[in-house]
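note to self: dont lose this again. the chain is below, predicted strucutre after it. 166 aa total, dont forget to put it in the shared folder this time
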Amino acid sequence: MSSNIRTGFAPVVTRAAEAETTSDPSSTMTLLADSGATGGLLTSYRSTFAEGAVGAPAHFHTRAAEMFYVIDGSLRVLLGEAVTVLNAGDFLLVPPHTPHAFAAAPGCTADVLFTFTPGMARFDYLRLLGRVMRGEAGFEEIKESSERFDNHYVDSPVWNAALAAG
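---
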């Protein structure tokens, strides 16, 4: 177990009406529980993607597994060198070091619950991402934060071709 995981933390309740949100022109992220509140066990947030929304370019994490649960709609996902579509009710677990990317599937919206385990301080990353997508910060800030937030971007011709095809 990671040394940042601790036991004895208080139960975490995040009320929908009180949850912090961050958004960009094509998606809204509802911040549910960051690692500091969960004893380092997990980080979780919900993202709703508009039709045509591009969620994340190809990247991988070195310290955490990332879970996707599609609540509604359809999400197109890159897994290594394969592209697949997850539909409402589908679950995906991406192990560390596995390149992945995601976007709303063509012609669809998507409502997705994301969870990282062990937890990482991701909420600052999501806030930064929202600022970049709104044009309030530059992409250089995301590149400079890759170690801090364990987001390592990679080139994926397979993902680029899938996005270009629509």
